[in-house]
UniProtKB/TrEMBL annotation:
Tail specific protease domain span: 89-292
GO MF term (any one): serine-type peptidase activity
Descriptive protein name: Interphotoreceptor retinoid-binding protein
Transmembrane segments: none
Leader sequence residues: none
Keywords: Receptor
GO biological process: proteolysis
Pfam hit, one: Peptidase_S41_N
């Protein structure tokens, strides 16, 4: 049961919506979409569409559904806190206390900067389970170590099925390991900074690059945010085959905005895509091979083994004869499943 102290009245609903629309209008990545959101929600507010809603959690859910329906962006949402929250102190948007940064770094290092598991699968297929994208400057040595270990594999499976995103800097660093030469990744648009930045892969990196070998990327409905950005880069450059389920649909970059003591909004403020999704497009990355996420690794392993056997072809095997036999045995086993 909701405490009467937190029941919404007309003035409370109007304050939330007006604050939300002000933030969306000034900060949302796509100005034309922001205008549509403002028109729709302002019309509903004036038309008393929300009049019967007195629950804060229900109101946040209704507003979130409207934002996502119009914006086709699951990084857009409104949250509700039963306990009133103070407005954050005014500070530079990018300013973060040194103590807070150090806490983030320690937390990321304990989780090995998202690198959950590295393995050599049958047939010399590399496997990397990456659960998050840490700040690149903290994880440079770890990335180099991981890529050096994977460098001698014949094909690679990157597992992002449980990756909810993280720092764009790690996306930029890690994706650069998959291209021999400098590649233009796209334009990053920032509504808040009023700038467009060109993004290219880093031409020189510490450690071994993973080039001229097949790459398979596993995704699920849980794959979100920066993980979707990483998948989108490899897909756009035709550098990986994506296997699994359509991803979560929050590819843009954003931040939280304070609305009232009980309400906060998350608004996308920047991103690599130049156009918003249309109403008939499903948010998220659609895989090249669509299978349930639980089956994605088995399918990717089979595809990787087939690619390795195709590469071996009819060439004299020499020291690779054992690899061919191992790959054939593993492929046959998977084919029988």
């Amino acid at each position: 049961m909701i405490n009467e102290e937190f029941l919404l009245d007309d003035a409370g609903r109007r304050q939330v919506v007006e604050q939300l629309l002000s933030k969306v209008k000034d900060h949302y990545l796509f100005a034309d979409v922001a205008e549509e959101i403002v028109r729709t929600l302002q019309s509903d507010l004036d038309g008393k569409v929300y009049e019967a809603i007195t629950s804060g959690s229900v109101f946040a859910q209704v507003l979130t559904e409207q934002l996502r329906m119009i914006g086709r962006d699951r990084h857009l949402f409104v949250s509700y806190s039963e306990q009133p929250q103070p407005e954050p102190a005014k500070k530079e948007r990018h300013a973060v206390a040194d103590e807070e940064v150090e806490q983030w770094r320690i937390a990321e290092s304990v989780r090995q900067f998202g690198f959950e598991r590295i393995e050599r699968l049958a047939g010399n297929i590399g496997y990397l389970d990456l659960r998050g994208f840490a700040e690149a400057r903290w994880a440079t040595e770890t990335v180099m170590w991981v890529m050096n270990i994977l460098g001698n594999t014949s094909a690679l499976i990157l597992d992002l099925r449980q990756n909810r995103g993280g720092w764009p800097s790690m996306v930029h660093l890690l994706v650069s390991y998959f291209f021999a030469d400098e590649v233009h990744l796209g334009e990053y648009h920032s509504r808040e900074d009023h700038e467009v930045r060109q993004y290219r892969t880093f031409p020189y990196l510490a450690g071994a690059k993973y080039v001229n070998k097949p790459v398979y990327l596993l995704v699920s409905r849980q794959t979100f945010s920066a993980a979707e950005g990483f998948a989108n880069h490899l897909r756009a450059q035709k550098r990986a085959i994506i296997i699994g389920e359509t991803t979560g649909g929050g590819i843009y970059i954003g931040r939280p905005f304070y609305l009232t003591p009980h309400f906060q909004a998350w608004i996308s403020t920047g991103g690599m895509r130049s156009e918003p999704l249309s109403a008939d497009e499903e948010p998220g990355i659609v895989p090249d091979i669509i299978v349930p996420s639980a089956e994605a690794l088995t399918r990717a392993h089979a595809e990787a083994l087939k690619s390795v056997l195709d590469i071996l072809g009819e060439q004299p095997y020499g020291a690779l004869i054992g690899l061919k036999e191992e790959a054939e045995a593993a492929y046959q086993k998977l084919a029988d499943l």
